[in-house]
Give the backbone structure.
Amino acid sequence: MQITRINLEPPYLIYLGDVPDLHHAKTGAGVAYWRPENCVGQIRLPDCPVDLGLPEMSVQDAKDAGVKTVIVGVAPKGGQIPANWIPQLAELAGAGFDIAAGLHTKLSDTEDLVTSANKSGAKLIDVRMPPPNLPVANGRPRTGKRILMVGTDCAVGKKYSALALHRELDRRGIKATFRATGQTGIMIAGEGLPIDSVVADFISGAAEVLSPDNDNDHWDVIEGQGSLLNPSYAGVSLGLLHGSQPDAVVLCHDVQRVETEGVSGDYPIPELDEVIDDTLRMAHRTNAKCFCAGVSVNTSSLSDFERDNYLSKLQSELGLPCVDPLATGMSPIANFLLKYAS
Amino acid sequence: MQITRINLEPPYLIYLGDVPDLHHAKTGAGVAYWRPENCVGQIRLPDCPVDLGLPEMSVQDAKDAGVKTVIVGVAPKGGQIPANWIPQLAELAGAGFDIAAGLHTKLSDTEDLVTSANKSGAKLIDVRMPPPNLPVANGRPRTGKRILMVGTDCAVGKKYSALALHRELDRRGIKATFRATGQTGIMIAGEGLPIDSVVADFISGAAEVLSPDNDNDHWDVIEGQGSLLNPSYAGVSLGLLHGSQPDAVVLCHDVQRVETEGVSGDYPIPELDEVIDDTLRMAHRTNAKCFCAGVSVNTSSLSDFERDNYLSKLQSELGLPCVDPLATGMSPIANFLLKYAS
């Protein structure tokens, strides 16, 4: 029985349709920002105001440029594929390009796309759909090293922190792979597993598949999902934590987040030292050596002065490197990680 | 959007096929033992050696007895429906009885059954299949009281302990409902949600649906799944814990279980006070008042003398009632629960 991960083949053409603004094209913008080497162009409908600054391409241009995969880099309202996009997407599928999307409507449920793809042999890849044959986790310790982003909540910068840390390790010549667990991350990495979409029994098994045995000096930098504190998604977070068997975690936080978002009831974010302590207690079940390598905080709501004060104070309280991944960078966390990982 | 739970209508006819021994008929035996008032008969193939002691029925007998649902109370090898069972099951479906099963092969993928059921209007109910439209958990505190079984591992007696505690509360005239989270539990309760089969994002949402708002003096006694200590299934267990918002937990254990079963690597069962402490830390996220109402231990491997010693020692160490649900009964845990639940 073959175990598979989602796998997208570069180079990419980013599809933008006719979304009204950059906010609706976050996935495409993320892929263009983090993986410029994989993006050879963009294709849009005539009235599309969004421009990622990539070369504009026709279907023929894309063929000439050797494009392998069209990334639907947009989230249209409601998550459906708008009817006016389908002819262009069908033309691209008919030209033999794989199409990858993370929409609510599956590509494979869209008849015109399936017909065109069947004729050309192109693949339609729904990155929200987990692959078949995922195993139940077996808990076997794996070779290689792993660091997992954990969060005080959803949407506090786990993906961004993972990508920034991966880039920092890569810059230093350290063997490292970014491991994507959500749809945008998968589009950026070109592979991964949508961990929140697997059947509950297989969460940790999927995490084990995602970061297999590796060289002893290789780091998997694993994108987190949800939060142990979030009463909607904590099961996903714990399954990912156990299956990842991380040697270290980075706690990701947004300085403005004082309570869990999107829920009813009283769910304040506790003190960060308590969050770290609870996380490590759970992490130690599958890796007794796991430690916290730092705290990565989105401080974009603060002035430079306020940010410096906040991060210095936090750092002295926790005794850990505390950074803003955008404003101050991940270098202190990389230093701490490499110093203390045995 | 209607939110549904699986729902089986009594009275039941227990289907046994031709399984070789009682071990393969555990589900049927469980339903007959815990819900004798719902079981009017059994039906078997000519050579079946297993007998649950229920009245033997033909299809006509079952019609006359007013049977509503046929419970496939067996687990054939490999989880497939044996070909020689299908004619009899199709006859039962054709006679208008709903058929409920928890096999790997879905009833609804078995053509002869679907044809017969479509003709008669009978339902084919796969209890491993979660209902559609499960919501993401919202974390809203609910009215009524809840107690959840948690375990040091899978298969340590969580279902049995929940059913025994429910029976004890019922005996005392306390309003209580057993809430089933696994397939055998669902067959026994006649309703429930297979919590380990839902998509990861919806684990806690399913748990919220399973135990809705209720009278202030009503107890939901919730069957547990997996264990926070089990590196394969802890995500399921935490999602269920958070979504259940329990006022109390009972820790279930098997005295012979010294390490997590079915995994590779070093996964010893910690001291029980540590397990209780970690469980309550996580439980407090959705119910700050949650406490441990006792420990329910399968001590069937011990002599009476050894059992008394073991339970007395444990009880004095933990300061909690420690029982064997079969040998000593759940009464001390019910006493403790009702005394300390506010």
